[in-house]
């Protein structure tokens, strides 16, 4: 082989060797590229999930606040805590013209007055009736004690079955009112009959419940009173009315729902709420209340919320939410029985609005047994000698 041939042969071998090296070390495979991408994207995915979670925040309340709020429970078992309500104002100076007040110095919680104004304004507009009389509102401890002692003196009993002991009357809260009818003569108690039955069917819309009925007297331990209404707020009044329960039963029911497992409620087609119970922190003088983070956005305008004490051992939180959970249902409304249908005032007044129903859960003629037991319960409720609960 001549010199030229040897040179060509050597060049061919070197070229082949170079091509083999390039093939072995080539560019990364598709699998390698995907592997590297997956490794770099994983942390990004985790961060995204963390951001989409809805965090909670806490607000601190004084434990003494269990005695304040629209949902405090005052009865034979639970005394009215420290007995103070900073929202007590004069009724006469804050009332509308659609009803009357028995005494010019009578007082009541301001929110309760606003509810009565709205309800009786609507009632007057629909019926033309303006003779509803506010007979008994806020009572101090001393006023209740005087009523209680007088009853014991009159009956000779060691314990009154007509007047609540001082400290245990709902009237201490300023959230209760006894209604009568100013007929110019006897001032009988308000009853669920005739045109007045509209009040019983529609009170819940304004945040009021008929507190003592024939159906729940075994729960409340108080006789039926067709004239005694209590303010709890529209959302809770709606639920209590539809469930057909006493306030005692309702608050026991709410205790089954906590922040991470709340009760949801469809108040209307456009208003939805989340409700839950938070026990009082017994190891401190304050309790931390968990609320959704949205409750603090836009100064609370995004998800408005309220916190009310229950007057015994904790707090009830009510949060307005933009929508319900996909699995929402209303079977809880009937767990205590048939309950009642949602009844809201209609724009057009009709005979159905004022029809009296003896089967109505919160509107039965609740005063009849009271009259039989006391002799003249209605007149007692319509004068200064009103019932003492």
Helix-strand sequence:
HHEEEEHEHEHEHEHHEEEEEHHH
Largest sheet: 5 strands, mixed
CATH topology: Muramoyl-pentapeptide Carboxypeptidase, domain 2
CATH class: Alpha Beta
Rough outline: globular
Number of helices: 11
Terminal CA distance reads: 129 Å
Radius of gyration: 34 Å
Please explain how this structure is put together.
The chain contains 11 helices and 13 strands. The chain is of the alpha+beta class and 389 residues long. It has a 5-stranded mixed β-sheet with strand order 3-5-6-8-7. The protein has a 4-stranded antiparallel β-sheet with strand order 9-10-13-12, with no helix packed on it. It has a two-stranded antiparallel sheet with strand order 1-11. The chain is globular. It has helices at residues 3-25, 30-52, 110-127, 141-155, 197-202, 217-220, 234-243, 247-254, 351-354, 368-374, 377-382, and strands at 56-62, 88-90, 100-101, 107-109, 132-136, 176-181, 208-212, 225-231, 263-266, 272-279, 286-292, 305-309, 314-321. It has one domain (57-382): 2-Layer Sandwich (Muramoyl-pentapeptide Carboxypeptidase, domain 2).
């Amino acid at each position: 082989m001549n010199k030229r041939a040897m040179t060509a042969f050597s060049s061919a071998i070197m070229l082949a060797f170079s091509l083999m090296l390039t093939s072995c070390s080539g560019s990364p495979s598709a699998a390698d590229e995907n592997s590297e991408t997956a490794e770099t994207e994983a942390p990004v995915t985790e961060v995204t999930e963390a951001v989409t979670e809805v965090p909670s925040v806490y607000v601190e309340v004084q434990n003494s606040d269990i005695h304040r709020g629209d949902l405090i429970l005052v009865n034979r078992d639970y005394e009215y805590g420290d007995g103070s309500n900073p929202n007590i104002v004069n009724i006469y100076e804050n009332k509308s013209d659609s009803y009357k007040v028995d005494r010019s110095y009578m007082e009541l919680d301001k929110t309760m007055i606003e509810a009565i104004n709205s309800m009786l304004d609507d009632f007057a507009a629909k019926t033309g009736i303006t003779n509803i009389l506010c007979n008994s509102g806020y009572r101090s401890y001393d006023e209740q004690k005087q009523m209680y002692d007088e009853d014991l003196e009159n009956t000779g009993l060691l314990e009154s079955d007509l007047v609540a002991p001082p400290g245990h009357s709902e009237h201490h809260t300023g959230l209760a009112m006894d209604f009568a009818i100013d007929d110019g003569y006897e001032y009988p108690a308000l009853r669920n009959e005739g045109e007045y039955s509209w009040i019983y069917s529609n009170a819940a819309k304004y945040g009021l419940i008929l507190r003592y009925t024939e159906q729940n007297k075994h729960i409340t331990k108080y006789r039926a009173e067709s004239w005694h209404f209590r303010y709890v707020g529209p959302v809770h009044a709606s639920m209590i009315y539809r469930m057909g329960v006493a306030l005692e039963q309702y608050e026991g029911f709410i205790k089954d729902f906590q922040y991470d497992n709340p009760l949801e409620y469809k108040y209307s087609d456009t208003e939805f709420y989340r409700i839950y119970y938070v026990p009082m922190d017994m190891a401190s003088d304050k309790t931390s209340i968990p609320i959704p983070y949205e409750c603090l956005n836009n100064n609370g305008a995004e998800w408005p919320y309220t916190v009310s004490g229950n007057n015994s051992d904790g707090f009830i939180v009510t949060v307005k939410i933009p929508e319900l959970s996909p699995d929402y249902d209303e079977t809880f409304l009937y767990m205590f029985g048939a309950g009642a249908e949602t009844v809201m005032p209609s724009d057009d007044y009709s005979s159905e609005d004022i029809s009296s129903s003896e089967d109505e859960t919160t509107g039965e003629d609740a005063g009849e047994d009271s009259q039989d037991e006391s002799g003249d319960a209605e007149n007692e409720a319509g004068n200064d000698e009103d019932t003492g609960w």
